[in-house]
Amino acid sequence: MVRAAVLSAVNAPLQVTEINLPEPGPGQVRIRLAAAGVCHSDLSLSNGTLRQPAPAVLGHEGAGTVTAVGPGVTEVAPGDQVVLNWAPSCGDCHFCGLAEPWLCARSGSAADAPYATLAADATELYPGLGTAAFAEETVVPARAALPLPDGVPLADAALLGCAVLTGWGAVHHSARVRAGESVAVFGVGGVGLATLQAARIAGAGPIVAVDVSSEKEELARAAGATEFVVAGEDTAKRIRKLTGGIGADVAVECVGRADTIRTAWSATRRGGRTTVVGIGGQDQQVTFSALEIFYFGRTLSGCVYGNSDPARDLPVIAEHVRSGALDLSALVTERISLDGIPAAFDAMLAGKGGRALVVF
User: What angle do CA 243, 251, 282 make, to 5 degrees?
Assistant: First the structure.
């Protein structure tokens, strides 16, 4: 049996209990988790903002060691250290054919099939985003287990599975930040901190971090921010002042709120790029006038999983980790147990801290 944090229903509190995991079937692997990050997307799954069949074991940002493989698995073997990929591409759909694996039509299929049962009564459980990382062990499709490059600490490597790939990709793939460009990052949580580091590595400057909490300034500056703005009614005006009066070349929104997206757009210069990473609800409506879309000539784009191809990007990111340019531990503001996840959810709702990391 395995201990796991179980969501019995949407908006229900997580309960740490024992579950039964099957042996891996064809094309599957079993992984002993070393760590799992607590991401805002897990909170969105728990409260119904994002769809997730329940009861479920949430958690999608994780890393661990393969303990068993099912028939036909050749990508990894027992003893291999791996990073979980919550959006593994199928390689066959229309989007994969376009070399856009982050939009794969079948990447979420594993989340819709039960993968384990409650030890108490054999109730079937679904894997959150197909990975179920809020557990001591999990079983996932082999394509969801990415070999961990050498030289990356296993526990901190959990952050590669979501926050870092998303923030890195937002800067390097979606916004395509060039050296010397100014960047404004809205939201200094786990993804925002990774985005700030990616912008610094890209040679951006100035780099403006924006958050509702003044307590985030030290974290933001340690990650690469050269300026810090406490969000308010004049946020866009203040960013324009910090960027020579014209606005940021690039704004990256990591919150997923209509008002923040609107502010990020307004803080971007004419002809600049606004990338939205944050996941908002259907009730979050953003409005623009037809005239301003013409006049400002800005580009507004969504960004799914950093528009990343993990197989391509992980080795590149690992090189920056090994060189010391990218500090994974700087994203972590708290290391907790499974029992600490509800408090980590509360902290996210209150806008506190960076990434909480469940360490097994």
Answer: 145
DSSP state letters, 281-343: -TT------HHHHHHH--EEEE-SGGG--HHHHHHHHHHHHHHTSS-GGGGEEEEE-GGGHHH
CA torsion, points 201, 204, 206, 207, in degrees to nearest 10?
-50
Of the candidates 58, 341, 331, which has an alpha carbon nearest to the alpha carbon of residue 190?
Answer: 331
The pTM of this model reads 0.94
Beta bridge partners of 77: none
- Surface-to-core class of residue 127, CB atoms within 10 Å of its CB (0-12 exposed, 13-18 middle, 19+ buried): buried
Measured CA to CA, the distance from residue 270 to residue 287 in angstroms comes to 18
The Cβ of residue 341 has, within 10 Å, a number of other Cβ atoms equal to 24
Any bridge partners for residue 335, and if so which? 357
155-184 pLDDT per residue, tens? 999 999 999 999 999 999 999 999 999 999
Contact between 251 and 274 under an 8 Å Cβ cutoff? The reply is: yes
Task: State the first-to-last Cα distance of the chain, in angstroms, to the nearest integer.
Answer: 15
Find where tokens 């307590």 sit: 215
Give residues with Cβ within 8 angstroms of 76, minimum separation 6.
Answer: 29, 66, 69, 82, 142, 145, 147
Pairing of strands 227-230, 332-336: unpaired
Contact residues for 229 (Cβ-Cβ < 8 A; gap 6+)? 208, 209, 210, 235, 238, 239, 242
Q: What distance in Å separates the CA atoms of residue 55 and residue 50, rounded to the nearest whole number? A: 14
Q: How far is CA 239 from the centre of its chain?
A: 25
AA letter at 88: P
Per-residue DSSP letter, 144: G
Residues 6+ apart with CB under 8 A from 291: none
As a whole number of angstroms, the distance between CA 210 and CA 137 comes to: 37
pLDDT in tens, 290-346: 999 999 999 999 999 999 999 899 999 999 999 999 999 999 999 999 999 999 999
